[in-house]
Write a sequence for this structure.
């Protein structure tokens, strides 16, 4: 099936993990993809296995001018933008909340929160003019159930969930659907940041909290993001979809 045939999708944080998997899945389903990341080397590596209509854009989602440039590049190349996946994220290392530096707090705010504001400012008028669109934000199970040692990260992801619902309510009349994904931790380079100590025992204890008995994978998240972007989810907006193996039950 080509569930996204003819659609143009921007995916931030596409250099690795969830973002890279979403870009791959969207391309497999016929989308023209715009991969955005701060690390162009990672992007170029992924482009080698994607169709020719996929392009890479180096961008800093924490800066308004950079977000505007990303949007303009995508529009100049493809003439429209149908899907926006705000996936780029940042976290502080697991530590007491009073020990998180102000610089790290500011980065969490800029990447996890303000980037969504910037992209919405740029995209909402364009999507309205096109007759609609889809926005997908990457939140986290930590946004619903904060973890000790991850206070400010958890708070930012709670904001993403709340913002998603508010955006969906206001943008529905413009035929723009807005949803978010709430994944549990994956076995990736960021996992050690979420654990107080990165030991085999700590990993096993985390997995024990997940009824299906494993961590998430990028493919799990990509499949959920595909469904939300497709017409199969045409009546879904304002939802926070748990991709967590039952952790939130």
């Amino acid at each position: 099936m080509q569930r996204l045939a003819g659609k143009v999708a921007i995916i931030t944080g596409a250099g690795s993990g969830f973002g890279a998997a979403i870009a791959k899945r969207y391309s497999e389903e016929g989308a023209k993809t715009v991969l955005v990341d701060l690390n162009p080397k990672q992007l170029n590596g992924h482009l080698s296995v994607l169709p020719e209509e996929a392009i890479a854009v180096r961008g800093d989602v924490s800066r308004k001018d950079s977000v505007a440039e990303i949007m303009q590049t995508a529009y100049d190349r493809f003439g429209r933008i149908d899907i926006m996946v705000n996936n780029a994220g940042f976290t502080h290392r697991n530590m007491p909340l009073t020990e998180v530096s102000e610089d790290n707090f500011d980065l969490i705010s800029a990447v996890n929160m303000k980037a969504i504001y910037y992209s919405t400012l740029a995209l909402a008028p364009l999507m309205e003019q096109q007759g609609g669109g889809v926005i997908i934000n990457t939140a986290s199970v930590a946004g619903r159930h904060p973890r000790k040692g991850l206070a400010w990260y958890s708070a930012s992801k709670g904001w993403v969930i709340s913002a998603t619902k508010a955006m969906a309510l206001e943008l529905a009349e413009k035929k723009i659907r807005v949803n978010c994904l709430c994944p549990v931790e994956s076995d990736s380079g960021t996992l050690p940041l979420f654990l107080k100590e990165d030991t085999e025992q700590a990993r096993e204890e985390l997995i024990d909290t997940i009824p299906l008995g494993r961590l998430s994978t990028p493919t799990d998240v990509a499949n959920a993001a595909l469904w939300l972007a497709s017409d199969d989810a045409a009546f879904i907006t304002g939802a926070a979809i748990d991709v967590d193996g039952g952790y939130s039950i």
